[in-house]
Amino acid sequence: MEQNVKEFLDKVSKRNQNEPEFMQAVHEVAETIIPFIEENKKYQNMMLLERMVEPERMIMFRVPWLDDEGNIQVNRGFRIQMNSAIGPYKGGLRFHPTVNLSILKFLAFEQVFKNSLTTLPMGGGKGGSDFDPKGKSDNEVMRFCQSFMTELAKHIGADTDVPAGDIGVGGREIGYLFGQYKRLQNEFTGILTGKGISYGGSLIRPEATGYGNVYFAQNMLSRKGEKIEDKTIVISGAGNVAQFAAEKAIQLGAKVLTMSDSGGYIYDEEGINQEKLNFIMNLKNEKRGRISEYVEEYPNARYHEGETPWSVKCNIALPCATQNELLEDDARKLVENGCMCVGEGANMPCTPEAVEVFHSAKILFSPGKASNAGGVATSGLEMSQNSLRYAWTSEEVDKKLHEIMNNIHAKCVEYGTDKDGYVDYVKGANIAGFVKVADAMLAQGVV
Ligand SMILES: NC(=O)C1=CN([C@@H]2O[C@H](COP(=O)(O)OP(=O)(O)OC[C@H]3O[C@@H](n4cnc5c(N)ncnc54)[C@H](O)[C@@H]3O)[C@@H](O)[C@H]2O)C=CC1
Ligand SMILES: O=C(O)CCC(=O)C(=O)O
């Protein structure tokens, strides 16, 4: 590693001890951005990266709530307001027992670059709680959301900070959070995205992250003269991103072989078609069941308890569950099995060692900050529609989403093409994302 990258990382890690996920995200950015700054005088001596790794504001708060037995429960709430150089803070809320400062800071940091790549005016933020929605009744989730928003409402606003969903926060939670904000502030305004269509949501927002990931993969494949049609695809996760990545892949004629949850994965050799996917959507979104139940409905499929799907032979892999879910050995297995393209739907699902394997093998690899940016981009379009007091059709939103994903791909190629013609999408996404934020920071002085 270059000496100045090492010195920079040493300094950041001293100030952010016991934050491995945050340091992992910073490390990946520093390796590409520090050499870029060294080649570009206008970005030198302004402490840009040093300022970017320091959140503008971090809010932590107590979230007390009553469970169905009348017991008092206490969780911890967070909002990281990372960078507002190019717009109001924007990024999701995660409700999961593993949530801590390190995870939310890595997500907020990634969000700054991702939101910049969309070309829409959104800064970066992220938040959430260690609350576990699994096994909770609707009423418990509602009481938790109301308590969480009672504090969060003091820190957000349509022109200040606009949260949305992430793991464990879907349409149900956004509805409860929005209802409480409106009651507290007596104001009907676009303070959250991912809202229901009946109260200011955008068509295609639920689909956008998964669809966008597949659009990005199409772009990468088409540079190689390849198509997604007839390709075999391995997907991890069975939540929002995984479901709609699968749906778009099926619509485009690919064969989806796997989906998973934290218990294990299902492998359906015949392919998961739209009817089977509808079963999974109902299972996960309404019944809130486990992916293992798939094989009770479709007995030709197999359930692999406690395993991830990366040993299944495929042309394309779309990790859509969570961070660090695809390890070095998994990456080797994928490459050995002839996988030609890996598109991150989740945030940072591949470890740095796994990414290194993909880069060394020169296969197509896109980082989440580029290939899952369709979700936040469509949140940006929801904000635009809220400001306009207007709603675009599905076709209009999907067309804009498609254009944004094509444009992000083009930017990655512009900044990430190596001398031998291989596109390093990590480098491309980092530099393209950095330039816009850095220019705005330079214009705004030392703030
Ligand atoms: N929802 C969105 O619009 C966006 C989400 N993302 C990222 O996509 C990923 C998935 O998010 P969503 O689909 O929204 O969440 P979700 O809550 O709808 O689904 C999460 C899925 O991941 C699985 N999962 C969680 N922890 C796991 C573990 N330890 N091992 C295996 N599987 C696990 C869950 O079982 C579930 O299937 C996350 O990394 C999130 O940050 C990224 C961009 C936008
Ligand atoms: O739609 C949003 O604002 C946030 C989406 C998100 O959390 C992400 O891109 O990771």
Automatic annotation (TrEMBL):
Keyword vocabulary terms for this entry: NAD, Oxidoreductase
GO MF annotation, one: glutamate dehydrogenase (NADP+) activity
NAD among keywords: yes
Superkingdom classification of source: Bacteria
Domain Glutamate/phenylalanine/leucine/valine/L-tryptophan dehydrogenase C-terminal: 202-445
Membrane-spanning segments: none
Oligomer and partners: Homohexamer.
Family named by the database record: Belongs to the Glu/Leu/Phe/Val dehydrogenases family.
PANTHER family: NADP-SPECIFIC GLUTAMATE DEHYDROGENASE 1-RELATED
Protein name as it appears in the record: Glutamate dehydrogenase
Organism: Autumnicola musiva
Classification lineage: Bacteria, Pseudomonadati, Bacteroidota, Flavobacteriia, Flavobacteriales
